[in-house]
Amino acid sequence: MRVSVDTGRCVGAAQCSRVEPELFDQDDDEGVVLLLTPHPPASLQAGARTAADICPVRAITIEEPTAGFESASSGPGHHPTSDSHVHCQ
Amino acid sequence: MTIEATAPPVPDFPMRRGCPFDPPPQYGPMREDGPAFRVRLPDTTIAWVVPRYDDVRRLLVDPRISSDRTRPGYPFLTEDSRYLSKVRVFVGMDPPEHGPHRRMFIPGFTARRIKALRPAIEENVTQRLAELAAGPRPADLVTALALPVPTLAIAQLLGVPDEDYTRFAALTGGLMTENPPRELFDELLAFVRALVSAKCAEPGDDMLGRIAAEQVATGAMSVHELVVMALLLLFAGYETTANMIALGTLTLLQHPEQLAELRADPSLMPAAVDEMLRYLSIAELATCRTAVADIDLGEGVVIRAGEGVIPLGASANRDPAAFERPDEFDIHRTERHHLAFGYGPHQCIGANLARLELEIVFTSLIRDFPGLRLAVPFGELRFKRDANLFGVHELPVTW
Ligand code: HEM
Ligand code: SF4
């Protein structure tokens, strides 16, 4: 899994860091999202997907390495976002 | 027969709740019947309401809708909201203007800043509960707990000096009574003006102080704009949180088994708070918008540029397409995608502060008052049925 964040879009709602604090943090001065690693270990991947799903401005993008995911950046199985990328390797 | 004669009548909006725990009964059938419906607002203008989860979420991030209150067609629900629209603050701005203005305030709401408020909020809750325990029974939980908790949190956020706190609490509390006198609002305005002037003269390391030093001193923001913003934070964060404390307590009392579970295991509380927010959805009317281009919602429904649009968060939060058993209150839900704080660039900036306050209040209350119960029959409770922010006027409890 590859995670990226668009700090230009982020509105600092801190939904992501609440869901998965080991993957997302906040910049102390600006308050915008800080991605701790673009390649989260398996234990953080479910949290990464939930965060991408609930981010209110869709500033979090997830690329899944394997095919077969209907909606890579969605949480519990719904709402594919227009800016999510699903691709095969 | 003319087309007008066969067209269904346009219902009035806001629609009102029947059961206080459920959204207006019209929402369920609307979700099944179509993506958007025309409604008549109190000032008789016609606007659209959007009931389904997917549409609500999609619309709230759609650049074709605007929060700008000065655009013709913006759906005002009260005269007060029209009055507030005259000042330009980020709540009423669209991207790309909205982002930089909102960002001035984000550093005041980071997880670390919010966490730093925990001890003060906890101490306040402990004191309020000690007073409640020592006082007469029954007691009104709204005045004893629901109002004092957000008062202190916002005073901390705004950096109200300790010596002014009593006056601040008296002013804000006074405004929460039914039909508060106009002078009280003027006094609060004068109070906030003095506070902002003091921050500009001597900026400390709090949110207003930093904005005064970085934005007002450099001319990026006027003193007046900062005053309005401070008032807006106060209004946005005060009654919302207070209503959630009272209604959330009532919800727990109505679900004694889940209350017992929470008492036994307080680590369940954060999820329970989010479930209360979803289930009660008290602030759905905060997300009024205007279409700036035609928006085709499918099923033959097109919202035209210039028409008002109100995505119904409370309906979305009860959409069976998004939540299993949506009408059940269930603290064990794992879904996190409710829209009680809105969605899109305007999603509530105070969401995590509100969550923290609610977690602390409910955890302490059910721990310290195991025998807590309503002191009047449920049917005698007076709900804020005509208000655009749902709540309860008093919550008489005993223990
Ligand atoms: C349980 C309590 C709360 C609820 C249910 C709530 C709900 C909401 C909702 C639905 C919106 C979206 C409005 C829109 O889309 O136009 C919003 C925005 C906002 N809220 Fe809250 N809120 C709560 C607490 C707070 C607190 C504690 C604060 C701050 C002290 C706050 C400050 C704001 C501000 C400033 C906005 C506007 C954000 C923007 O336009 O970018 N709220 N809130
Ligand atoms: S949830 Fe989205 S908007 Fe909020 S802090 Fe994270 S990236 Fe930014």
TrEMBL record, chain A:
<feature type="compositionally biased region" description="Basic and acidic residues">
    <location>
        <begin position="80"/>
        <end position="89"/>
    </location>
</feature>
<dbReference type="GO" id="GO:0051538">
    <property type="term" value="F:3 iron, 4 sulfur cluster binding"/>
</dbReference>
<dbReference type="GO" id="GO:0046872">
    <property type="term" value="F:metal ion binding"/>
</dbReference>
<keyword id="KW-0003">3Fe-4S</keyword>
<keyword id="KW-0411">Iron-sulfur</keyword>
<keyword id="KW-0249">Electron transport</keyword>
<keyword id="KW-0408">Iron</keyword>
<keyword id="KW-0479">Metal-binding</keyword>
<dbReference type="Pfam" id="PF13370">
    <property type="entry name" value="Fer4_13"/>
</dbReference>
<feature type="region of interest" description="Disordered">
    <location>
        <begin position="66"/>
        <end position="89"/>
    </location>
</feature>
<keyword id="KW-0813">Transport</keyword>
<protein>
    <recommendedName>
        <fullName>Ferredoxin</fullName>
    </recommendedName>
</protein>
<dbReference type="InterPro" id="IPR051269">
    <property type="entry name" value="Fe-S_cluster_ET"/>
</dbReference>
TrEMBL record, chain B:
<dbReference type="InterPro" id="IPR036396">
    <property type="entry name" value="Cyt_P450_sf"/>
</dbReference>
<keyword id="KW-0408">Iron</keyword>
<dbReference type="GO" id="GO:0017000">
    <property type="term" value="P:antibiotic biosynthetic process"/>
</dbReference>
<feature type="region of interest" description="Disordered">
    <location>
        <begin position="1"/>
        <end position="20"/>
    </location>
</feature>
<keyword id="KW-0349">Heme</keyword>
<dbReference type="GO" id="GO:0004497">
    <property type="term" value="F:monooxygenase activity"/>
</dbReference>
<protein>
    <submittedName>
        <fullName>Cytochrome P450</fullName>
    </submittedName>
</protein>
<dbReference type="GO" id="GO:0005506">
    <property type="term" value="F:iron ion binding"/>
</dbReference>
<dbReference type="GO" id="GO:0020037">
    <property type="term" value="F:heme binding"/>
</dbReference>
<comment type="similarity">
    <text>Belongs to the cytochrome P450 family.</text>
</comment>
<dbReference type="GO" id="GO:0016705">
    <property type="term" value="F:oxidoreductase activity, acting on paired donors, with incorporation or reduction of molecular oxygen"/>
</dbReference>
<dbReference type="InterPro" id="IPR001128">
    <property type="entry name" value="Cyt_P450"/>
</dbReference>
<dbReference type="InterPro" id="IPR017972">
    <property type="entry name" value="Cyt_P450_CS"/>
</dbReference>
<dbReference type="Pfam" id="PF00067">
    <property type="entry name" value="p450"/>
</dbReference>
<keyword id="KW-0560">Oxidoreductase</keyword>
<keyword id="KW-0479">Metal-binding</keyword>
<dbReference type="InterPro" id="IPR002397">
    <property type="entry name" value="Cyt_P450_B"/>
</dbReference>
<keyword id="KW-0503">Monooxygenase</keyword>
